Amino acid sequence: xxxxxxxxxxxxxxxVISGVVFFLYPQIDIATTQFFYDxxxxxxxxxxxxxxxxxYHSVKYYTALAFLITFGLFVFKKISKKVMLYIFLSLSIAxxxxxxxxxxxxxxxxxxxxxxxxxxxxxxQKPFVKSDNSNAYSFSSGHAAIAFSAxxxxxxxRRKKLFITLSLMYGSAVSFARVAAGGHYLSDVVxxxxxxxxxxxxxxxxxxxxxx
Length: 212
What we know:
The chain is mostly helical. It has one domain (3-208). 66% of the residues lie in helices and 2% in strands. It has a two-stranded antiparallel sheet with strand order 1-2. Helix 4 (81-107) packs antiparallel against helix 5 and helix 5 (142-148) runs antiparallel to helix 7. The chain is globular, with a radius of gyration of 18 Å. It starts with a helix and ends with a helix. The mean pLDDT is 94.
């Protein structure tokens, strides 16, 4: 079995395990969120801080830059059509279609700030349970998904391990910022990580059939 296939199997197994754990023990989400919540002032410690705002807004600049650089490299014939298609699909399918369009826009999970537990008016909802809540876009995290999509670009680098590590660090930083600000639960960002990373690896395996 090639290295990339091993990563796919490994991540798939842990995705299932994490999903079962978060579903059976939703108190993990609650306890993690409570760590950043001040019940006295009913505010999240990192909400609207410079750190949270930096990572929140960094995602849109990363996305725009990634598409612009990819298009520029293609126009000047520095990358092939295959590479351009791989990058386009990697940045579109998992973060755009699966996470934002299918899950986030239609799942109906209230954000921590919207729940009664943390100063809102909606009931807490377990992950992986669809509901008809309106204006509830917590599951899963769009920002985390876009940030972790940097892994797809890192797979194309010569020093893959270094850039994959940096990509995971960036994705983790954005995820931390979203959880610490009350925008998402831990299960939201973890789910986005698994979806995006698995799709990136599957696309890489399909297009290039190489080991990492």
